[in-house]
Amino acid sequence: MTPYLDMIGLVTTDMARTLAFYRRLGLAIPADAEQNPHVEVTLPGGLRLAWDDVAVARSIDPDWAPPVGSPRAALAFRCTEPAEVDSWYAELTAAGGNGHRPPWDAPWGQRYAILHDPDGNAVDLFAPTPTPDS
Predict the structure, then answer these.
(1) Which residues lie closer than 8 Å to 73 by C-beta, 6 or more apart?
(2) Residues 44-79, buried b or exposed e (16+ Cβ, 10 A)?
(3) What residue ranges define each of the domains in the chain, with the CATH number in brackets?
(4) SS3 of residue 131 by DSSP
(5) Are 104 and 112 within 8 A, CB to CB?
(6) Least C-beta-crowded within 10 Å: which of 18, 67, 79, 85?
(7) Rounded distance, CA 120 to CA 115, Å?
(8) Residues 97, 45: contact at Cβ < 8 Å?
(9) CA 130 → CA 4, 13, 21, 79, distances in Å?
(10) SS3 23
(11) What angle do CA 101, 82, 74 make, to 5 degrees?
């Protein structure tokens, strides 16, 4: 049997702040989940997204240290339309999210924006831009 991608795990230094960020993006994270050192949600399609606090990460790997430099991975959230990218970016940055690159029309045919979650992980927002034929 071939392994399949089942979960994406992120380490957080502030569980409450991180979960508030992802709740604002619409993820159904249980109430009071921030009291736990490990939190996970099942996304549409069955993929799971999980957060562990630093103590859990170090219990798994005593040599664990937070990554440095640019984010090495990004979670990309598809929006319905280009204006929604702008709206979500404005809402998340107004709520204290770290805006990295404001919305722009990317040459690959998408409205795109980049934020960082409270732990510096890249969170991309995107929506297809209408083509001249649509």
Answers:
(1) 8, 121, 122
(2) eeeeebebbbbebbeeeeeeeeeeeeebeeeeebeb
(3) 7-60 (3.10.180.10), 74-128 (3.10.180.10)
(4) coil
(5) yes
(6) 67
(7) 9
(8) no
(9) 34, 39, 29, 13
(10) helix
(11) 45
**Amino acid at site 51:** W
The per-residue pLDDT for range 7-50, each reduced to its tens digit, is: 999 999 999 999 999 999 999 999 999 999 999 999 999 999 99
Helix axis angle for 15-24 and 82-94, nearest 10°, is 150
Distance CA 97, CA 125 (A): 13
- Which residue type sits at 78? R
Predicted TM-score (pTM) of this structure: 0.83
d(CA 130, CA 88): 19
What is the number of residues in the chain?
A: 134
